[in-house]
Design goal:
The complex is a heterodimer of chains A (273) and B (431).
Chain A lengths: L1 H6 L2 H6 L21 H13 L25 H9 L2 E4 L8 E4 L13 H7 L11 H4 L11 H11 L4 H10 L16 E2 L7 E2 L20 H16 L3 H30 L5
Chain B lengths: L11 H9 L2 H11 L1 E3 L8 H22 L7 H10 L4 H28 L8 H23 L4 H12 L11 H10 L6 H32 L15 E3 H26 L29 H9 L3 H13 L4 H4 L13 H19 L5 H28 L9 H6 L23
Antiparallel strand pairs in B: 1-2
Helix pairs in contact in B: 3-5, 3-9, 4-5, 5-6, 5-10, 6-7, 6-9, 11-12, 11-14, 11-15, 14-15
Classes of the chains: A mainly alpha (273), B mainly alpha (431).
The structure holds protoporphyrin IX containing FE.
């Protein structure tokens, strides 16, 4: 427990071998990838009603929620939503700090003032900020040395960037009863995707805990998928813009290469090469 | 290569300028007329590609520096600010990050090309040495640049690499740690360190530009090598740089852009490490500290040696040995194409470099360590034993009499106009 207190449980992480994690199909993967609006909106709801109790989103602003390429809530909805938070501002003309209602231009209000408060509330463990978590994790796949170069080239050719999302999904659906022979440290829960298998975060998702109004079944798997998709968007809000531009750039370069190829051939024609 | 100028100033201004500063004449001579071997293959397009990479890094880097904040608690979030709120900031940042990788990819191909075709041999020693200097500068710049996002990998890579200097303590106690404190500007890696790394990351590329200028100057004094390694002897061996080489370079560059664009737009983080999206935390060491892919071979060599000091020396030696290849290679012919024995060793060397890269990403223990030692040994044996020895004992295959003969086959007159382009401006009578 002391170790957990001092290191936020990461000692445990370093000690274990990386568990095997399955790749998932994501709408935002690949060349034509895009976020599924419905999934982002449901994912936001899961984040707000469950995860936000312990995890902040430091790099995100409320206004992002109405920007193109995200959940695309209406501006009015975001204004209302931000106004439900209390934000500390100031100093005013008297030099006093004061509380005011949140605005869309504010950053997401964190659940705790600082790391110390967060640790105190979570029996020593520190719930990390989630705004970049979908890019700050990846999956580890063992490959034989002679297959490694091909695997790397295949991943690049496919544009594989979803390791973080694959891990988050596996983590959120990875809670199980601990195996008999394993002795769990106090306050830790067994999770088959977490390195070291003991995580200080209690299982956050339970069937039916968050109400879905669009008819999507309220299962742990769906919650995990949606909140993962949402966290991917928070980490990479320009993904759609990027992929759309990328497609145009590639088409342009393909045509350019074709033209240059023939131009080069034309220039070299007389040389008897 | 020196050749009489055919430059004709075409208007009043260029005539006026030509009498005062003949810079247009210079450009015309070096980038239009410049006689280039007609048989260059696509491996010769990487010099131009490298110049392009340098320009990309400069432009994107200067824009990034307008928004980046080199402070301990703002560096990481200023990068996120660039990614989210600066117009086209994500494009600038991803281009710069992927650009670093593409720069090294091109440089490694460029260097391998030089090694295969013996481009380092007389009279291109200085050209080659300037190239190695460029390579060293690139490594310094990339290392410093990687520290700037101030993520976990940035911080710990700086800590590990700067700490290497403390190994000098085993020679003179205290000196190593004093150097490390001097580099850090304190007793640990901190904001002070970050500031000086940023300052140097901005400065060194401009020095690099200067060295690249010298590199290209040296190239234009001695001229290009070519796949046969036989020098240009007559007009029919060469083509003017423009439009022949410019068009070929442009086509190759366009293909290179496609790979570059693929990575920027569809896999911008693939070559990076996910830990660098976690803000630097001096109290928490990541489970595996690994450098960027292009430093993995050197990292493998560093860790293959049990003694820290010797490891550091071996790592630097693996680069410095390149300075001497012009004299280590005793072969009479340049191109490996005509070297039946050395050919095998060349490819063994390439395999060694890739294997070291693979091992650099693995923990330094067990079989990984065993093989890292074997390949480290071969890396040095290749330069220090194989290169001098094979050159002496090998009997090279017969060389073509001229580049023209190599391209058009025997019987083509070496001095005549066979296949000579009509419109070639570079037709000096007195060569
Ligand atoms: C910033 C990096 C570099 C730039 C911008 C650059 C630029 C160029 C250019 C434009 C050429 C002429 C085109 C060609 O034939 O490829 C060239 C040739 C050459 N470079 Fe580099 N170079 C760089 C790095 C290096 C390095 C690291 C080395 C070797 C250690 C090197 C060695 C050579 C040699 C030997 C030649 C002449 C080769 C030949 O024509 O056969 N260069 N370089």
């Amino acid at each position: 427990m002391l170790a957990v207190l001092l290191t936020g449980g990461h000692e445990v992480r370093a000690a274990g071998e990386a568990p095997h994690i399955e790749r998932q199909d994501w709408s935002f993967a690949g060349m034509f990838g895009f976020y599924d609006r419905g999934s982002l909106q449901r994912g936001y709801k899961v984040y707000k009603e469950v995860c936000a109790a312990c995890h902040g989103l430091d790099h995100a602003h409320y206004r992002n929620l109405s920007e193109p390429g995200g959940p695309e809530f209406s501006k009015a909805a975001v204004k209302y939503l931000a106004s439900q938070y209390e934000v500390r501002d100031g100093p005013d003309s008297e030099g006093q700090m004061y509380q005011r209602k949140g605005r869309p231009s504010d950053r997401f209000v964190p659940p705790y003032q600082n790391e110390q408060e967060a640790r105190a509330a979570n029996s020593g463990a520190w719930p990390p900020d989630l705004s970049l978590i979908a890019k700050a994790r990846s999956i580890h796949e063992e490959t034989a040395w002679y297959k490694a170069p091909l695997k790397i080239l295949m991943d690049i050719a496919r544009g594989y960037q979803e390791g973080g999302a694959d891990y988050l999904y596996a983590l959120l659906t990875g809670y199980q009863d601990a195996p008999e022979k394993m002795s769990m440290a106090e306050g830790m829960t067994y999770n088959k995707a977490f390195p070291g298998y003991q995580i200080a975060m209690p299982n956050p998702l339970a069937e039916g805990a968050v109400e879905y109004t669009d008819g999507t079944p309220e299962t742990v798997e769906n919650y995990a998928r949606d909140v993962t998709e949402f966290l991917m968007w928070v980490a990479e809000p320009k993904l759609e813009e990027r992929k759309r531009l990328g497609f145009r750039v590639l088409v342009y370069l393909l045509m350019l290469s074709g033209l240059l190829y023939f131009a080069k051939k034309l220039v070299w024609r007389d040389l008897g090469h | 290569m020196s050749h009489p100028s055919t430059y004709e100033p075409s208007n009043g201004f260029s005539k006026w300028l030509d009498r005062r500063l003949p810079v247009l004449r210079l450009m015309h001579g070096q980038f239009i007329e410049f006689p280039t071997p007609r048989n260059l293959n696509y491996l010769w397009t990487f010099g131009g590609i490298l110049s392009f990479c340098l320009v990309v890094q400069l432009i994107t880097g200067i824009v990034l520096a307008m928004h980046y904040v080199p402070s301990g608690d703002q560096a990481f979030s200023s990068i996120e600010h660039i990614m989210r709120d600066v117009n086209w900031g994500w494009l600038m940042r991803y281009s710069h990050a992927v650009g670093g990788s593409m720069f090294f990819l091109a440089a490694y191909i460029h260097i391998a090309r030089g090694l295969y075709y013996g481009s380092y041999k007389d009279p291109r020693e200085i050209l080659w040495i300037l190239g190695v200097l460029i390579f060293l500068l690139m490594m310094a710049i990339a290392f410093m640049g990687y520290s700037l996002p101030w993520g976990q990998m940035s911080f710990w890579a700086v800590t590990v690499i700067t700490n290497l200097f403390s190994s000098f303590d085993t020679i003179i106690p205290g000196v190593g740690s004093a150097i490390v404190r001097w580099i850090w500007g304190g007793y640990s890696v901190s904001e002070t360190t970050l500031n000086r790394l940023f300052s140097l990351h901005y400065l060194l590329p401009f020095i690099l530009v200067g060295v690249v200028g010298l590199h290209i100057w040296a190239l234009h004094v001695v001229g290009n090598n070519n796949p046969t390694g036989v020098e240009i002897q007559s007009d029919s061996d060469s083509v003017p740089f423009h439009p022949y080489i410019t068009m070929k370079d442009a086509f190759a560059m366009s293909l290179f852009w496609m790979i570059f664009a693929w990575l920027i737009f569809f896999a911008p983080n693939y070559l990076g490490h996910s830990d660098n999206y976690i803000e630097a935390n001096p109290l928490q060491t990541p489970p595996h500290i690994v450098p960027e892919w292009y430093f993995l071979p050197q990292y493998a060599i560093l860790r293959a040696i049990p003694s820290k000091l010797l490891g550091v020396i071996a790592m630097f030696a693996s680069i410095l040995v390149l300075f001497f290849v012009s004299w280590l290679d005793t072969s009479k012919v340049r191109s490996t194409k005509y070297r039946p024995i050395y050919k095998w060793f060349f490819w063994l060397f390439i395999f060694t470099c890739i294997a070291l890269g693979y091992l650099g990403a693995k923990p330094a223990e067990g079989v990984y360590l065993f093989y890292a030692r074997i390949f480290t040994a071969y890396y040095f044996i290749h330069f220090l034993v194989v290169m001098p020895l094979i050159g002496v004992i090998e009997r090279p295959k017969p060389l073509p009499n001229s580049i023209t003969e190599d391209v058009l086959g025997k019987g083509s007159s070496p001095s005549g106009g066979a296949g000579k382009p009509e419109a070639a401006p570079a037709a000096p009578e007195n060569r």
